[in-house]
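Subject: Sanity check before I submit

Could someone independently write out the structure tokens for this chain? I want to compare against mine line by line before I put it in a report. The sequence has 80 residues.
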Amino acid sequence: MSGVSDIKEHMEVIGADGVHVGTVDKVEGGRIKLTKKDSGEGSHRGHHHFIDGGLVAEVEGDKVRLSANAAVAVSMEDEK
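---
Independent answer below. Compare away.
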């Protein structure tokens, strides 16, 4: 099991179901800051979202796998 200290910029974040959640901008305060290009639509578009580091199940290669499915992880995203 890996922690947020193993996460690097530009890694792909995927849910436990293998679905793309976002791309790492950086780790900030124990949370994964996603790039703006993965910010969604409407009022969510154009700003960073954060995934709690506690959702990280493993870091392998260039992927960060979460312990939650993508739809659940996205619903738990924080905004700045």
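---
OP: Matches mine. For the report I'm noting this point. Residues 70-75 form the longest helix (6 residues).
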